[in-house]
Specification:
Cryptochrome/DNA_photolyase_1; Serine Threonine Protein Phosphatase 5, Tetratricopeptide repeat; 18 helices; alpha/beta; about 475 residues; DNA binding; 3 domains; about 50% helix; Deoxyribodipyrimidine photo-lyase; chromophore; single chain; DNA Cyclobutane Dipyrimidine Photolyase, subunit A, domain 3; five-stranded parallel β-sheet; Rossmann fold; binds flavin-adenine dinucleotide
Length: about 475
């Protein structure tokens, strides 16, 4: 006999925890729950459980609007959404304590702290005699399923991608059928406005609102546009920040408005249905695999956000903003888009205005920070975390470590992007720079000298001598 056996089953509901999967289509936890009985959805803003990184400012803006959108989509399905802020375990204990919860479902998360928390939740729910079920919804494959022959996670992208392509990717699942909302008194919901996720003084979010509509319907619409046009030209245009040449689906994937399975399936269908555009569709699909790769890397190397994956870089003399006035000045110039290098300044302005930056420009801005300005990659990573609407712990830290040279499958440290040559090649008419950084600033560093200083530091590190990085001088 379980704790809940005396409660009429008609009064009990399936509780679905929503986290980074704010959608109704291809949501395995939601679908399984709805097949078992009436569903109640719960989103917890958890800023208390140990080890969970608080959301950045742009992400908080996105979340506010995404929850409004999710509530509307769930309402159409007859599913109430309850919002709560606090420690996830305590809140779930409160829900299960009322005796109305028949089962708790969620899609799995892969960060170390999130996994630890979900294990605590599962243990608690099961100890209360309630069914607890986790589902696979966020990645194309579970990180423990796609392994090298040695049984370890992949550290290099190309073999990972080859392995991924040769396995079957499951088909996306439909949204649940509409149902009658549960007929019982539910625990109260917080008012979203009370969470104060939106910036107020000042409200800097106008550019974000102009650029984006958070939520599942807008993500599906964008996917349609991508399939109709962008994917077909992706191979030729993806490196051009002056063109609308990439999918801009990263926030949709970050927040789970789309599952990677939906995107993968559509791109695969496009690639096989048409000769024209197949190359682009496959090139774009390959990028989607990068997202999975970053998450597999993070799962197998939980220190990815905090430590260099190549420990030799622990001896590198990275500078921090409070090390010297010069390092503080460099940090400010970079964050504000006043480095004097048009492509970098345009990228930083695009980021500030819209919460997003083109991938090529992310690489160039990151390279300038880490190599020419000599600052620690975490200085840039934290700024991106605060300002990107697609800020994603695995993708952000893996890519920063890739640029810094300290990552598993990293670009070699001595590959220093020259922002002027990159601008000539990828923004040939100067339209991107003119749009975001029309006023040129004085260069903060001499590109040639700072590049040489970076390479010297690298060689010192390799030879075990005391290095000197370009950002440390006063
Ligand atoms: C320093 C740095 C930091 C980054 N931080 C993030 C981040 O916080 N969140 C994030 O989603 N991406 C991050 N990226 C990866 C990449 O820049 C963005 O995913 C891409 O620019 C998003 O634009 P898009 O959707 O048009 O991409 P597309 O080119 O259209 O690619 C389609 C999808 O593939 C995935 N993808 C593409 N490139 C990468 C990549 N290099 N690594 C992982 N996934 C990729 C994204 O989900 C993207 O939406 C970072 C890259 C760099 C160099």
């Amino acid at each position: 006999m379980t704790a809940n056996s005396s409660i009429d089953t008609a009064q009990r509901y399936q509780l679905v925890l929503f986290r980074d999967d704010l959608r109704t289509v291809d949501h395995p936890a939601l679908l399984a729950a709805s097949e078992a009985g009436p569903v109640v959805a719960l989103y917890i803003l958890d800023e208390q459980s140990p080890g969970i990184r608080p959301l950045g400012s742009a992400a908080r803006w996105w979340l506010h609007h995404a929850l409004i959108s999710l509530r509307a989509s769930l309402q159409e399905l007859g599913i109430p959404l309850i919002l709560r802020r606090g420690n996830s375990l305590h809140i779930i204990e409160e829900f299960t304590g009322h005796g109305n919860v028949a089962a708790v479902h969620w899609n799995r998360r892969y960060g170390q702290a999130e996994r630890a928390l979900d294990t605590l939740i599962k243990d608690h729910v099961r100890a209360a005699g309630i069914h607890a079920q986790s589902h696979a919804g966020a990645l194309l494959h579970e990180p423990w399923e796609l392994l090298t022959q040695a049984g370890t996670g992949y550290k290099v992208f190309t073999p990972f991608h080859n392995a991924l392509r040769s396995t079957e990717i499951r088909q996306p699942r439909p949204a649940p059928q509409p149902q009658s909302p549960p007929q019982l008194e539910l625990p109260g919901s917080d008012a979203l406005a009370k969470w104060e996720l939106l910036p107020s003084s000042p409200d800097w979010s106008g550019g974000l609102a102009d650029a984006w509509t958070p939520g599942e319907p807008a993500a599906q619409e964008r996917l349609e546009q991508v399939l109709d046009d962008i994917a077909q030209h992706y191979a030729d245009r993806h490196d051009r920040p002056d063109l609308d040449g990439t999918s801009a689906l990263s926030p949709a994937l970050r927040w789970g408005h789309l599952s990677p399975h939906q995107v993968w399936k559509e791109l695969s269908a496009l690639a096989s249905s048409t000769g024209h555009g197949a190359e682009g569709a496959l090139a774009l699909r390959r990028q989607v695999a990068w997202r999975d790769f970053c998450w597999h890397l993070y799962y197998h190397h939980p220190q990815l956000p905090t430590e260099n994956l190549r420990s030799e870089f622990d001896d590198f003399d990275w500078a921090w903003p409070d090390d010297s006035p010069r390092a503080a000045h460099y940090t400010r110039c970079w964050q504000r888009g006043r480095t004097g290098f048009g492509l970098v300044d345009a990228g930083m302005a695009q980021l500030w205005q819209t919460g997003w930056m083109h991938n090529r420009v992310r690489m160039v801005t990151a390279s300038l920070l880490v190599k020419n300005l000599g600052l620690h990659w975490k200085v840039g990573e934290q700024w991106f975390w605060d300002t990107l609407v697609d800020a994603d712990l695995a993708c952000n830290t893996a890519n920063w470590q890739w640029v810094a040279g300290s990552g598993a499958d990293a670009a070699p440290y001595f590959r220093v992007f020259n922002p002027q040559l990159q601008a000539k090649k990828f923004d040939p008419s100067g339209a991107y720079v003119a749009r975001y950084a029309p006023l040129a600033a004085e260069p903060v560093v001499d590109l040639k000298e700072s590049r040489q200083a970076a390479l010297d530091s690298y060689h010192h590190m390799k030879s075990g001598q005391r290095p000197h990085s370009p950002g440390t001088g006063s």
